[in-house]
């Protein structure tokens, strides 16, 4: 099963609305290979502007979070149905949300159900901490996060999800897992778990991204791996040159 690579830019809490529009326009206008899917994930407030900017182009958009309820007294939150028409994807379970905002395996799973019910596609982030990595717990942590995130989904729903394997120690640090190490985690502790839950055919349809200090210069190493189907990019997604460099490098190496 051939999976179309996805390069998603997680802009985190960066860019004003005007800056976001400009960055999106730069990416839309840049010469890009057309066999790579691209998604831009700005802060909520910039989603309408970014969505308008990418309209008519193949570039997709994503939100960085949502609530698991469809509406209600949850001050400051955004529900999945509110993102319909603005976002194709919703990132959930990012390690920064797990660390600073109390995201748990259980809320990630509830959010995955809510996103799919709204007709959108979750990008489910998982990954081990440095201490877990050093204690040899990577496989156990990643498989249990995968199982928890996908609990109760049908195979048809699971097939539309994206997983982002992001070792926490590699996010924003300049450190990366090696391509072969990241591939082994994606194959043995993500795709194998998905095959166990939903069958081999569904598991082979699900895209698994690598995330953590991906830059144009190290992209080829990840693109060459059979079980890595794209990248979730933080810092380097904030510059047109770096982000398009990653997309181009993926296309030539993958
Ligand atoms: P980074 O962030 O590319 O800046 O390491 C990746 C992420 O957090 O998704």
Q: What's the total helix number?
A: 11
Unreliable residue runs: none
Q: How many β-strand stretches?
A: 8
Q: pLDDT average, as an integer?
A: 97
Q: How much strand?
A: 5-15%
Summarize the amount of helix as a percent range: 40-55%
Radius of gyration: 17 Å
The largest pleated sheet is described as: 8 strands, parallel, barrel
Shape from CA axes? globular
Order of helices and strands: EHEHEEHHEHHHEHHEHEH
Class by alpha and beta content: alpha/beta
Work out the oligomeric state of the chains in this entry.
single chain
Bound molecules: 2-phosphoglycolic acid
End-to-end span in angstroms?
15 Å
Strand order of the largest sheet: 1-2-3-4-5-6-7-8
Q: Keyphrases for this structure?
A:
single chain, 254 residues, alpha/beta, 8-stranded parallel β-barrel, 15% strand, globular
